[in-house]
Write a structure and sequence with these properties.
This protein is an alpha/beta fold. The chain contains 28 helices and 25 strands. The strands form 7 sheets. A 5-stranded mixed beta barrel has the order 1-3-4-5-6. A hairpin with a 6-residue loop joins β10 and β11. The protein is elongated, with a radius of gyration of 46 Å.
Length: 804
């Protein structure tokens, strides 16, 4: 085949990165650089010839003439495929070697002045040339066998007896550096080119043999489960062959140093050093090595010997508690007592406190204040809905993704061995087939055992005796008894309206003003407005809804000021509805007249106390007792007990002895959609029945609470604090309570105690005398008592009294 003849010509030029074009060879490559794309387009617009030249530095994005080799290949474009992004993929065929004489232009693309360089003619085809050709072909055959790529490539090389072509073809189809390919291209003597190719192939074959030998050694050390780490094992074998150290040695030394610096007990130190030795035997990136490494990092990050300095200044702690929260005298006193004991006996262990109260009364926030007052670090664990024991005690580290339990994670986060840990919503722990989280807490919350608390993940005892545990709950009924016995219970009752007023003035309103960018001069609320908000827009035991309503006012005030309508906003009771809308709750008012068959009881709910009206109608009938109003079984039984009491007192009350045969009694509690239960409405039901049967009206300014028995005894109830606050809101003046609750009057809020008259009774006859206007009243059996206020706390027998 005759070689094409070229003269010195100007051609568009493309600089190749990491590849070389050879004559009579096809080459595929992608073009993305703008100057290369422009050169290709210029060639397509001409005779489709282009000069391909390799650049010296493959990372040079904009090579100059000095950055290019001087020998390249003149090619013709055979195929082009444009791809998104202004790029293209082309196929070219090499025509002849050429030498770069210079560049005519370098913008917008290279235009090169090139001179074709033909192969030097061979004198004759000798036996030496034939031997060299066969040696090259055999080496190429061995090379393709080593790389496992014997195909048409080998057949093409074997079919030619042209030394120059064979050298070019092999250089085009083996994986060598572009500098070596350039050397082959620049050699125009075919036999010399073939010799150089033999040298390159010999070296590549030797390297491949070493590589395969290392690969064989590596595969012998690997089992089936370790094949994913094939490449890293190869690197390890190479380091072993070269006599170099393992790069993980520094990591192992670091772990050992950290263990020794912690000065742990002998059991702990021995366990951790054993794990480090196990890590040294594992492949660096094996799954087992990752598990051990995570375990060591977790254990060594724990505050084994880190203790924060506790504040023993009682006055300073008292100031912090008073500044953060209004009221809560029991909690504040208990913390001051704890601090006083710590001051006199620093070695005393941490305690376990449990705050029980309705939502929104500040249980969580007061725990943060306690930590600040004591100078301890604070961490919170939310236990609501947790139903897996491993969440508390951790997972065994043999499992993939295992981690320590929440207690140890919180201690690690706090970074101290004596933090305050808040276990929030402990009454809402779940339980299923995966274990009982409440049982897992027994060890942690036992001050006699938690100095050696063992987390399943750590497998080492950790001292929790210096931790101050604070738990919160809405009710103690769902807390398991063994867990309850380990905690000191402090009850937080509902806030009184006066307490809510002070909390709003001192904490909530300033907080919302600051959050909304307002000052006290820009937004002003009088006490009467706050009282109106508390009574008409909130119905809760805490202050969360009150804070949301204050936030609503602040947003509207900020909008008013930002719109330029004014510089300040003053809200009055008359304008409150413009900011909050119509009242959400009506204020309970006393009826203007005494009514027959209508009595007022007092009920406890989770959001505070309520006045519960009882209506009774007596109709001609056959003695049926109809009970409506969504009543529970206990309340229905109270109604039957009240009816039996009335039958035993018909003579004294002036009621027909046969009424239970000739009259139907319908007892109804309004707001029938709300479930109601509990025994404390017993005396209220009896009074309403007696009033309906006798026609005697019930005093409209009296409310009552107490359980009734068949013989008329009045028994103790719970929730007295919340019930008396409801009476005060409803403009009630007299409250009838059981004698057994007389001691609870000391817990009543002073404002409530001063405004109400309490009648303490032990028998139903006394209630009748006080509440009904009978024609011939019996002996009065009640007297007036005043008391002092504090949190009522426990509901005692009145477990489910009314609206859930």
């Amino acid at each position: 085949m005759n070689q094409p003849v070229f003269e010195g010509i100007a051609l568009p030029m493309v600089a190749l990165r990491g590849m070389t074009a050879f004559p009579k060879m096809l080459l595929h490559f992608d073009v993305e650089r703008s100057m290369s794309v422009a050169a290709i387009n210029a060639a397509l617009n001409g005779d489709q010839k282009i000069f391909l030249l390799t650049q010296r530095d493959i990372f040079d994005e904009a090579p100059t003439e000095e950055g290019l080799y001087t020998v390249g290949t003149i090619c013709i474009i055979r195929q082009i495929l444009r791809v998104p992004g202004n790029g293209m993929r082309i196929m070219v065929e090499g025509l002849t070697r050429a030498t770069l004489s210079g560049t005519i232009s370098q913008s917008p693309y290279f235009i090169a002045q090139v001179h074709p360089a033909m192969d030097a003619p061979m004198a004759r085809y000798t036996s030496r040339t034939e031997a060299l050709l066969r040696q090259c072909q055999e080496l190429f055959d061995f090379y393709t066998a080593l790389i496992g790529n014997q195909s048409e490539t080998m057949l093409t090389a074997m079919a030619s007896d042209d030394p120059g072509y064979v050298a070019d073809y092999i250089a085009q189809n083996i994986f060598i550096r572009h500098e070596e390919k350039q050397e082959i291209l620049e050699e125009i003597r075919p036999v010399a080119r073939l010799k150089r190719m033999v040298g390159i192939l010999s070296r590549e074959v030797e390297i491949l043999e070493i590589k395969n030998d290392l690969q064989e050694k590596t595969s012998q050390r690997m089992n089936q489960s370790q094949r994913d780490y094939y490449l890293r094992e190869q690197a390890k074998v190479i380091r072993a062959e070269l006599g170099e150290g393992d790069e993980s040695d520094d990591e192992l030394d670091d772990y050992r140093t950290r263990v020794l610096l912690l000065d742990l007990p002998e059991e702990h130190e021995e366990k951790l050093l054993k794990e480090i030795n196990r890590l040294a035997k594992q492949p660096y990136s094996s799954s087992e090595a990752s598990v051990i490494r995570n375990y060591l990092d977790t254990v060594l990050d724990l505050p084994w010997n880190t203790l924060t300095k506790e504040r023993v200044d009682i006055d300073a702690a008292r100031r912090v508690l008073e500044a953060d929260h209004y009221g809560m005298d029991k909690i504040k006193a208990r913390i001051i007592e704890f601090l006083a004991v710590r001051k006199l006996a620093p070695e005393v262990k941490g305690g376990i406190l449990c705050f029980v109260g309705p939502p929104g009364v500040g249980k969580t926030s007061v725990a943060e204040s306690i930590a600040r007052a004591l100078g301890r670090r604070f961490a919170r664990l939310s236990l609501g809905g947790v139903h897996d024991e491993a969440e508390i005690r951790g997972h065994r580290k043999t499992y993939v993704g295992s981690m320590p339990g929440r207690i140890m994670a919180a201690v690690q986060k706090a970074g101290s061995r004596n933090p305050l840990l808040l276990l929030d919503e402990i009454d809402k722990l779940g339980r299923d087939h995966r274990g009982d989280p409440a049982a897992a807490l027994l060890e942690a919350l036992d001050s006699e055992q938690n100095n050696t608390f063992r987390d399943h993940y750590l497998e080492l005892p950790f001292d929790l005796s210096q931790v101050l545990f604070v738990t919160t709950a809405n009710t103690r009924d769902t807390i398991p008894r063994p867990l309850l016995d380990r905690m000191e219970i402090i009850d937080l009752g509902s806030y009184t309206d006066e307490e809510k007023l002070q909390i709003a003035k001192r904490h909530l309103l300033p907080k919302q003003r600051k959050r909304h960018g307002l000052t006290a001069r820009q937004l002003r609320l009088l006490d009467d407005v706050l009282r109106d908000m508390i009574a008409g827009y909130t119905r809760e035991s805490g202050v969360r809804q009150l804070e949301r309503e204050l936030a609503t006012i602040c947003r509207k005030a900020a909008t008013f000021i930002a719109d330029g309508k004014g510089k300040r906003v003053s809200i009055t009771a008359e304008s409150l509805h413009e900011f909050l809308g119509v009242r959400k709750y009506k204020i309970e008012a006393v009826s203007p007249v005494d009514e027959v068959g209508l009595a007022k009881g007092l009920a406890w709910t989770r959001v505070g106390g309520e006045i519960l009206e009882v209506e009774v109608s007596v109709l001609d009938g056959t003695g049926k007792l109809e009970l409506t109003g969504n009543l529970g079984d206990v309340m229905k039984e109270s109604a039957k007990a009240a009816l039996s009491y009335i039958r035993s007192r018909t003579g004294k009350l002036g009621i027909d002895k046969e009424f239970y045969k000739t009259k139907d009694i319908h007892l109804h509690f309004p707001e029938g959609a709300i479930p109601k239960d509990g025994p404390s409405a017993g005396i209220t039901i009896a009074i309403a029945m007696i009033s309906a049967l006798t026609g005697a009206p019930v005093r409209r300014d009296i409310a009552m609470t107490g359980e009734i028995t068949l013989r008329g005894r009045v028994l103790e109830i719970g929730g007295l604090k919340e019930k008396t606050m409801a009476a005060l809101r409803g403009d009630i003046r007299t409250v009838v309570i059981p004698r057994e609750n007389e001691r609870d009057l000391e817990e009543i809020d002073p404002t409530v105690r001063a405004a109400l008259q309490f009648l303490v009774v032990d028998h139903m006859d006394s209630v009748v005398d006080a509440a009904l206007c009978l024609p011939n009243p019996g002996e009065a059996g009640s007297y007036t008592v005043s008391g002092n206020v504090q949190d009522m706390g426990e509901r005692r027998k009145d477990k489910n009294i009314v609206p859930q």
